[in-house]
Every structure is written in C-alpha cells, then in structure tokens.
Design goal:
about 425 residues, alpha/beta, eight-stranded parallel barrel, two-stranded antiparallel sheet, about 10% strand
Length: about 425
C-alpha cells in the first residue's frame, strides 16, 4: 500500500462531518490537485468522546459511498502504541506510531555501539543537495543521536512488527511520530533517525519530526517563520538523501502534526514542496469541531445557547480540560471573558470570536483554544449535541468545507 504524494488528515471529533470534509478534497481534485484524505482519530479522542475506530471507518466509508468518491482514502490509528493498538487493527489502514515518550531513553549499550559503528561511514563534512552548508558529522554526534533516539525507534519497530504480524506486509501505511517533545530535531538528528528506521526495517512513508516554534491547537504558528521555512526545506532534503542511501520507501515525506490553522507557515511549506518536488502530509483535527460551534452559534436559538453552555462549563473546568493539552496550548486565562459576559454576546459575535480570522477584531485566540480542548463538554451533552449537529447540518457543512478548502488546502496546494 503506497500513500499518495499529497495527503491531508481530517480529524472529526464527533464523526458527523465526513461528507463536507471530503467535499473539500473533491474541490481540490476539480482544480487539478489529487490529495488523499486520511480520517484520523486517537485513543485519547475515542476515550473522551465515547467512540471507537469502527465509527471512524463507518464515517469514512459512508462519505466515500455518498459522494461517489473514487480517489484514495485511509483511516488513521492516530498516536498509537502497543498498549492500545489492538483497538485499531481491524478498522485502520494507516498507523501513526507515537514514540515521542521514549526519546531520551538509552538503548542497550551493544545496540548503541553497533549503531555508531554502522553510521560512522558518514563522519566528516556531509554535503546534501539542497542544503546550503554541509553537515558536520562526528562519532560523538552519531552517538548523541543514538542515545537520544535509537530506543524510541526500537519501540516503533516493536509496534510496527506487531501490526504487520496481524495485518500482513504491505497492507497499511506507517507513520512515525516524534513531534511531541521539547526540542526540534536537527538535520543531522533526522538523518540518523532515518538510518535507525532503515536498520529496524520500518517502511515509514511519513515522519513527523519536531519543528522549531509552537504548534498550538487551533491557532496560528508561533515562532520564527523564516527559521521554520529553512528547517522544513532542509528536512525534505535530508529525507530525499536518506531514501537514496538507506533504501527507505521512495515516497517518504514529512508530516506536519497540529497542522490546522498554521496559516503563516503554509507559504513556506508550499514553496519547499514545489522547489523540491516533494510530498507532504498535513494532519488536522480540532479545526472541524470548532466549525461546528461556529455553525451552531450562527444558527441562534437553542443551538447558540448550547455553545454558551459549552463555553461556561469549559471555563469552569479549565484545569481539567487544559491539563492534557498543556504542551500545545497557550491560553491567557485572565483575558478569557467570564461565562456571564460571553452569554450576553449576540450569536454572531460569538461565532466571530471563535472563527480563526485574525483580521476580525472579535476573534479571540484564548476563547478558540479553550473551546478547542473543550470537546469533552460537548461529548457529555450526548444526543443533545448530536441532534443540534443534525438540525443544522447544512450550515455547519458549508463552514467545514470552506474552512478546509479555502484556508488550508488552497494556500498549501492551489
């Protein structure tokens, strides 16, 4: 199974927006760009919402059938490990192996010595096409990379081998995720991560490294855009070089996690993939759930009141909801409106405060981030929330499609 050059992850917290998400991908195809759609959902999301991977598969298959879609599509077991992969095996054909928690744990000394010896042939000044300055490789740097990443790659191999033993060879897409860590990987580190993946015989088709800057949920990139652009371009070049010397899959490409709403870096990503004729996978999730809230707020009446209630509960349960996402949100709690103030706003102002439009004076990144992690509250409303989505399906669907196509797909690919 081979992943296409361009692919787009479309998380859907409550499993109701598959049709408009696919419509956005179809619009891109109509304009000449083929993008594989990947419906992704994590173990954590399933626990919070009360769903399972079979629900994601049903949503994907239903959207494809309803639209007559003939392009590629996949279902991603997002951020899985050995402890929970069994819940995803039957209904996924894309597996994101999350081993970031093992970064920094040392592998067995014999394994480290073997890794250093194997990679020492690259010692010296390594010129990689597309990177301005040569990489300065030493045994010490190789060992440092091995001490930091080899054990994590070995853990990825354990997960991959288990999945393959159940599903069979070449029946699924493999992504390796190392993005949820403190420090971004250097080009040298990425090269040796890829060397380790090859040594462990993991046929990764996408890899999610940690980039410089902050990729907070639901809001724009925060950091040095120029530095990110250099890193992204250099990483593409490292991947291309690694493919040629390590025998990794020829379509191996970068994956950008928490990729939704990172509008300021989309021009750099687009420039790099065009310059190097490279592919990319962009993973999104909560941006669709926020469009549901926007549509409900604009619909007024009881649906707008539901949004106000969700905000009120999220505000009250701030620590509970934000704790699990503390590394990927930056909310100034003092700038959040009180639930009483929020409830007095008219419906369209509420929608504007949530919508990611930085040119709008009512847009509030603190409100948006809080509601982004507040989907647990909506899940607790159960049928009440789901019925509201059904009642206002058309307006919400227009927002979901427009958000993905106009704000994400168009600046990246069109």
């Amino acid at each position: 199974m081979k992943l296409e050059k361009y692919s787009f992850g479309t998380g859907d917290r409550f499993g109701n927006q598959g049709n408009p998400q696919l419509q956005a991908i179809r619009k891109a195809k109509e304009q000449g760009v083929d993008i594989a759609i990947v419906w992704n959902k994590s173990h954590r999301e399933h626990l919070i919402v009360g769903t399972s991977q079979v629900d994601v598969r049903r949503e994907a298959d239903s959207a494809v059938k309803n639209s007559g879609w003939s392009g590629s599509y996949y279902v991603d077991a997002d951020h899985i490990g050995l402890s929970n992969v069994d819940n995803f095996l039957d209904h996924s054909d894309f597996f994101t192996l999350d081993v970031a928690e093992y970064i920094g744990e040392k592998a067995d000394e014999k394994d480290l010595d073997c890794f250093v010896d194997t990679c020492s042939i690259f010692s010296g000044r390594l010129h990689i096409e597309g990177i301005e300055e040569p990489l300065n490789i030493t045994r010490e740097k190789i060992r440092e990379s091995g001490e930091k990443y080899l054990f994590a790659v070995q853990k990825a191999a354990e997960i991959y081998n288990y999945i393959e033993s159940v599903k069979g060879k070449d029946t699924f897409i493999t992504e390796v995720s190392m993005d949820e860590t403190e420090e971004p990987q250097t080009p040298e580190e990425l090269l040796f991560i890829l060397a380790a993946l090859a040594n462990q015989k993991i046929p990764a088709q996408t890899i999610a490294p940690k980039f410089t800057g902050r990729f907070n949920k639901g809001v724009d990139y925060q950091g040095d855009v120029d530095q990110f652009n250099r890193e992204f371009s250099d990483d593409i070049c490292v991947i291309r070089h690694a493919v040629s010397i390590f025998g990794l899959p020829s379509n191996l490409k970068l994956s950008v996690h928490s990729g939704s709403d990172k509008f300021s870096i989309y021009p750099g990503i687009r420039k790099a993939i065009e310059l190097h004729d490279a592919g990319v996978h962009v993973k999104t999730a909560g941006t669709t759930w926020l469009e549901e809230l926007i549509g409900l707020a604009e619909s007024g009446g009881s649906s707008a009141n539901l949004v106000k209630d969700i905000y009120s509960s999220s505000f009250t349960r701030f620590d509970e909801l934000c704790g699990p996402y503390s590394s990927v949100i930056d909310i100034d709690r003092n700038l959040l409106p009180s639930p009483e103030e929020f409830s007095r706003w008219d419906d369209h102002k509420i929608a504007r405060s949530i919508r990611h439009d930085m040119s709008c004076s009512d847009y509030d990144k603190n409100i948006r981030q809080l509601l982004h992690v507040g989907y647990k509250v909506a899940a607790e409303y159960g049928k009440t929330y789901l019925q509201a989505l059904e009642t206002h399906r058309d307006v919400i669907g227009r927002h979901v499609c427009s958000n993905l196509f106009e704000k994400h797909i168009t600046p990246l690919f069109l």
